[in-house]
Write a structure and sequence with these properties.
Blueprint (H helix, E strand, L loop, with lengths): L4 H16 L2 H10 L6 H8 L3 H13 L3 E4 L2 E4 L1 H22 L1 H5 L8 H4 L9 E4 L7 H10 L4 E6 L6 H10 L3 E7 H10 L1 H8 L4 E6 L5 E6 L3 E5 L10 E5 L2 H15 L3 E3 L4
Parallel strand pairs: 4-5, 5-6
Antiparallel strand pairs: 1-2, 3-9, 4-7, 6-10, 7-8, 8-9
Amino acid sequence: MGRNKYSIYEDIEEQLKFIISSRVRTKMLMSLSEGAKASGALREELGLAASTVIHAARDLERENLLIEKEDGYHLTPMGKIITLKLMDTFKTMSILNAHKEFWLTHDMDGIPKEFLERIGELEEAEIVRSTPTNIIKALSYYIKLVKGVKQLEGVSPILHPDFPKIIEKLVEKGTKVRLVLTEEIFEIGKEKYYHLFQELINRENFQVWVTERPIKVAFSVTDSFISLALFHVDGYFDTNNDLVSRSKGAINWGRELFEYYKKRARRIREGT
């Protein structure tokens, strides 16, 4: 059996308090994560007095997080790892606080644990929200974003009436489209848009996978953005709010999440 989580916390409690109770120590660690820096460079970057930098450096050195060499201060191997983990926590808290209402009112079960642990990678995100005076704002913004993309990967447990036409236009102009759909949505779509499906499935730049597993997230990831939509905590899918990010980290996160679902689905071939 693994160690009790509370005993782990008790073991590191004092060191954690030591780091985060001081803005100076925390910022010095973050700055040095970029590489070695002399005292003068740290003083100028952080706007600190020389004595403050020296005092904080000595404290960090006693905790084996920092070491001073001829070319300046360096993080120790342990210091590098701890700083990376702290910065990831800061990024996670930042994205959650920036869009607090979105995260509090939506069901996160559709995002696997290993991706929730990396939710801080959804940097520079914005919430595109439809309003009573513009009920299709989220959809219109999405249509604008997908124009000109070279590839689109999507996962969806819903069938929006406008999406088949959007996908058709993308495929016709050469965009590589790969989709993962639930069994139910695939069967509904194939029946309702039979001729379109038969046309698309024969195209080299269109691929679709189907999963029997429940999906509780809908997202598209392209070469330039990720757009994420979730179910409300009451169980209804939210068509009015999309989280959108153009950052490289967020796009990479989305691509890996697509691969996660694709690996758990079966490929639909020509003539299915």
